[in-house]
Amino acid sequence: MHFNPYGGAAAQVAADLVTLGPAPAAELLGVMRAHGMSLSRLTAAEAEEVVAWAGRLRAVFEETDTDRRVAAVNGLLADSACRPHISRHDGKPPHLHYADERDGAVTRVRAYTAGGLAHLVCDAPDRMGRCARPGCPAVFVDSSRNGRRRFCSTRCATRVHVAEHRGRRRVPAG
């Protein structure tokens, strides 16, 4: 099992939902289940609410001022009614839940992502960001060893580095 101490799977779900943007319910559900969320279904109406929530999550990744970032996360926590508790279900070891398992999907997504971002902002606020490639809307949680990630993917990094290289090799006309 890969353990990401920087906000854990919950912060990664937040980043992936922000990056994914508007998407069908099945695709959103797939992203959440890929990170261990036990949601079994998501309606089209719930998907719209999750996409709207992801818009609010984006502000946390894009904010660079610590006080404003903390205020944004505190707002998310208040609006999500996040109630962390330890749960043991389905034969799993004790683990943290941010909302009751009986709550609706949207409530659970809001609480989970707000809680994950709260951990990330408190423990490693420099481990989140927006892709440095101009025009790329992706955000990320930096779980790299050195904590110097600037791009959402190697593809974006390569595009920027190739453009910079070509810019340096151009011979001025004249």
Automatic annotation (TrEMBL):
Signal sequence coordinates: none
InterPro entries: ABATE, ABATE_dom_sf, Znf_CGNR
Domain Zinc finger CGNR positions: 127-169
Pfam families (alphabetical): zf-CGNR
Chain segments annotated as transmembrane: none
SUPFAM superfamilies associated with the record: Jann2411-like
The protein's name: CGNR zinc finger domain-containing protein
